Amino acid sequence: MNVDYHVHALGHRGGQYTKELLLPYINRARGQGVQEIGFSDHDEYLEGINEESIASLRTRYTDIQIKLGLEVSYRPGREEEIKAAISRLPFDYLIGSIHDLDLWMFDHPDYRSGYSSWDIAELYRKYYSVLERLALCGLFDIVGHLDVIKVFGYRPEGDLLPFAEPALQAISSAGLVVEVNTAGLRKPCAEIYPAKELLARCFELNIPVTLGSDAHLQNDVGRDLAYARELLFQTGYRSLMTFSQRRRCSSLL
Ligand code: ZN
Ligand code: FE
Ligand code: FE
Ligand code: ZN
């Protein structure tokens, strides 16, 4: 099963979902052999997402399923605001992602200088403590780009697994799905999210997986998913999760 569950049609450009906007993404996915495409724009663009354009496109194709998701920026204390936002549309799945720590947008190139004021080991502990809270808050189906804190290549010395372990335990006990997100390959860290050793630990902890390109442009839809599936297979995975109306279904990888 080839799915791309992390696609931004609005990107950071805003605007509204229309058939004309979504069609090139869908056609790109079909061309890449993607069997399910899931639109998952950032929750800050929620106003631009409308279900009607998705619904009308769904009836048009028999060779691809079209899902509606949302990538929610998790921040401790945002839970009630998130609850209100996600109740507004019939989402198939919700991706919980961390994009800032105490409002510092650590994954954004404009704020990269912020790394210089951190001890990197301390920063990793902070990031993964927030990820643990994300996992335990019970609002999400999928964990987005699990180790995105490495985006600019800042890594503490030595084994990274101990930093992530408590969050991985929480993800496992909460029954969350982890996405293998290929956007990291296109970023300065030049590595898939999550890294191989973290993915291997996910497998040991029986954490299910799904796939996403994190495309913000139509040409990135389906990008490197063949590599991601191969990596999953090598890690031991034989299935991945798909979602409909927040119910999950296991499919053969
Ligand atoms: Zn984005
Ligand atoms: Fe994200
Ligand atoms: Fe994204
Ligand atoms: Zn993302």
Secondary structure layout:
Layout (H helix, E strand, L loop, with lengths): L2 E5 L11 H13 L4 E7 L8 H8 L6 E9 L5 H8 L6 E5 L22 H17 L5 E2 L17 H14 L2 E5 L14 H9 L4 E4 L12 H11 L3 E6 L2 E6 L1
Parallel strand pairs: 1-2, 2-3, 3-4, 4-5, 5-6, 6-7
Antiparallel strand pairs: 8-9
Bound molecules: zinc ion (2 copies) and fe (iii) ion (2 copies).
Architecture overview:
The protein is α/β, with parallel strands linked by helices. The protein is built from seven helices and nine strands. The protein has helices at residues 19-31, 51-58, 79-86, 120-136, 161-174, 196-204, 225-235, and strands at residues 3-7, 36-42, 65-73, 93-97, 142-143, 177-181, 209-212, 239-244, 247-252. The strands form two sheets. A seven-stranded parallel beta sheet has the order 1-2-3-4-5-6-7. A two-stranded antiparallel ribbon has the order 8-9. The radius of gyration is 17 Å and the shape is globular. The mean pLDDT is 97. Bound molecules: zinc ion (2 copies) and fe (iii) ion (2 copies). One fe (iii) ion binds at residues 71, 97, 99, 144-145.
